[in-house]
Amino acid sequence: MDFKISLGRTIVLVKDYDEAYNFYHRVFGCHKIYDDTAPDGQRYLHVGFGGVENTGIWFLKVSSDSESKVGNQTGGEPLLVLYTDDIFPLFDHLIGEGVEITEEIVISPKSKFFHCRDLYGNRIVVVEVA
Hints:
Blueprint: E1 9-14, H1 17-28, E2 31-37, E3 43-48, E4 56-61, E5 80-83, H2 87-96, E6 101-107, E7 111-117, E8 123-129
Parallel strand pairs: 1-4, 5-8
Antiparallel strand pairs: 2-3, 3-4, 6-7, 7-8
């Protein structure tokens, strides 16, 4: 290929923009990359991790007829994989924040990982690569 492709945003369906941002900011330390409201009322709230501006999450508020998809947009499979450089303090932080841990830390020769849920029930895998 003669062109470059990179990942921009993944979409996470939410019930409330501020509620979702507050959770991800408090628990995972995300920051706002972009937050604006279009003339038609659609809000665009994009968040990133670790100072990165070009990759992140776009929170998208669902309409009332699609609300059942919030927390289940992947049919129960993981929605996100987040990487950390130190899994144990992050794990303890999440416990302290009351985050539901669905799978305790697993240690393998090449990685450590655990599974948790966000405020809507989406499964998140947190990984530290060796």
